[in-house]
Write a structure and sequence with these properties.
Shape: globular
Helix content: 25-40%
Number of domains: 1
Largest sheet: 4 strands, antiparallel
Number of helices: 11
Bound molecules: iron/sulfur cluster
Distance between the termini: 30 Å
Structural class: alpha+beta
Number of strands: 12
Radius of gyration: 19 Å
């Protein structure tokens, strides 16, 4: 845990511009945390400068997610209420406001280049990024919660909470808190043909979120619909991700999650068994071929889309 000053000057910064304060906390942690380093690659950064967005936790979109994602997907108010009820030992804790802080972590350019060269399975850098990057997201989420709590603000990282669930087949493959849906609500990008998420820094990224009762200004959503940043839906062309898939998990109809899982866990097992060199880690190798070597890898490819 990186220490954080709790003095009047810092408190003033938080109170005078809470959005900017949070952006600074996240950016500094990305810049300086030793968790954001690829040990096997000379401690190169795992993630580059983040994008940060904010969403009003009472936005009607969050109720829609119960249909779109899963019926047990939490609204920000529901999960904050649950958290505070347990923490404060009160049945119906009073909540003044509820907001979502969403962050997008673009993958290091060298890692994207290495994966873009691959045709059948992920590069070692990509695999290490998948799993060490996950650890970093956990540390960043904890740090943000820790900093806010230092100032008497309530905050939680839903993906780390005990009530977070992952639903698997025969149920929908989904979770009770979708990070990409949080990023969509916070104005950070849209979905795509391959079930990815295209941000102004592209699709090759990971994202996370924290819910808080701190009053924040919501970010605008600079897109007309939830697929606006994908060339396939904007022009009827592209489909580069379909050609990148080493199995047949992608088509013009979209992403076949079951086939993708088969490729990840079965077809790419040799990567985990050392067939492509030592150093692969995690539950599976990580693929990501449809996120690299494609027009949306590092930008929004649709002309006229808002860029940051
Ligand atoms: S490669 Fe093309 S079709 Fe596939 S997600 Fe990116 S923009 Fe959309
Ligand atoms: S992650 Fe890999 S297997 Fe899954 S859809 Fe993308 S390219 Fe295909």
């Amino acid at each position: 845990m990186i220490s954080f000053p709790v003095d009047n000057r810092t408190r003033n910064r938080l109170e005078s511009n809470p959005n900017r304060f949070i952006e600074d906390v996240i950016k500094k942690f990305v810049r300086t945390s030793p968790f954001n380093q690829l040990e096997a690659f000379g401690n190169d950064l795992i993630f580059e400068t983040p994008l940060i967005g904010f969403a009003d936790g009472n936005d009607a979109l969050f109720t829609d997610y119960k249909q779109v994602v899963h019926k047990q997907h939490f609204t920000p108010r529901e999960i904050l209420t649950k958290y505070l009820a347990e923490k404060l030992k009160e049945e119906s804790p009073e909540i003044k406001s509820v907001n979502v802080i969403s962050f997008v972590l673009p993958i290091n350019r060298k890692t994207k280049t290495s994966n873009a060269r691959e045709m059948e399975g992920p590069s070692l850098r990509w695999n290490n990024t998948r799993w060490q990057g996950q650890n970093f997201i956990i540390e960043l989420s904890r740090h943000l919660v820790f900093v806010l709590e230092q100032f008497g603000v309530h905050a939680l990282a839903p993906e780390l909470s005990p009530c977070y669930k992952i639903f698997t087949p025969p149920d929908n493959l989904a979770s009770s808190w979708s990070q990409r849906h949080m990023a969509y609500a916070a104005g950070l990008g849209t979905f795509s043909l391959n079930d990815g998420f295209i941000t102004p820094k592209g699709m090759a990224m990971r994202c996370g979120s924290v819910v808080t009762d701190l009053a924040l200004t919501p970010s605008p959503r600079p897109y007309e619909h939830h697929l606006a940043n994908c060339l396939f839906y904007a022009t009827g062309k592209c489909g580069a991700c379909i050609r990148r898939c080493p199995g047949d998990a992608l088509s013009e109809k979209g992403h076949d999650k079951a086939r993708c899982l088969h490729i990840l866990f079965d077809k790419q097992k040799p990567w985990m068994e050392g067939a492509h060199g030592p150093g692969y880690m995690g539950l599976y190798a990580g693929c990501g071929l449809c996120q690299t070597g494609v027009p949306c890898e590092s930008r929004i490819p649709v002309s006229g889309s808002q860029k940051r």
